[in-house]
Amino acid sequence: MQQTVTKIKTIQPTRDKSYTFADVMTYLHGINISREDKKSVGRQLIFEAENENKAKVLNRLEHLSTLAYDWDGYGALPISNVVIDNLKKTVDSSRDEDWDAWTISPETNGALGLQSKYRTSSISIGAYEFSYYSFTSENEVGENNIPFTAKRLLNIMRKIG
Question: How far apart (Å, rounded) are the C-alpha atoms in residues 9 and 12?
């Protein structure tokens, strides 16, 4: 099915045209895969087209979840499944534009880091808590050990991103 998804991505919408689920299903009708696979691929393509940033984050999380012990050659821990699941919940409750300013990287202690593309801001997300820091020419803010909820994380991302 992965090969089919790659082939089908050629019908991704442009800025001038978007595709509906019905458009994608019409296209998929001529491909020799099961009905359920066609529906699954169609839903995924529509999601990716409408939520480009969120789709990139989910793909990145999928990759980061595969990192094994010692992924950096210096004894780094694998990324905690709790951290991955928490960030997926955050993606689910976010808007696509919430992720435009952020990159995601693994941390050697099994946490994930978010770094702003536009400011000197970062967030470290552990299994049950997160911390953040942001510096501008006008002020410096940060806080440690904030109990994790998707809502709290999104508020901080929007504030310092």
Answer: 5
On whether both 78 and 156 belong to a single domain, the answer is yes
Residue 124 has pLDDT above 80, yes or no: yes
Are residue 85 and residue 145 in the same domain, yes or no?
A: yes
Give the predicted TM-score (pTM) of the model.
0.69
Please state, in angstroms and rounded to a whole number, the distance separating the CA atoms of residues 13 and 130.
Answer: 36
The pLDDT mean for the chain works out to 80
- pLDDT tops 90 at residue 155: yes
Same-domain pairing of 15 and 82: no
Residue 116 shares a structural domain with residue 160:
yes
- Nearest alpha carbon to residue 131 among 116, 154, 153, 150: 153
Which is it for the CA torsion 102, 78, 62, 148, positive or negative? negative
User: What's the DSSP call for residue 16?
Assistant: S
Q: Residue 137 is part of which domain span?
A: 52-161
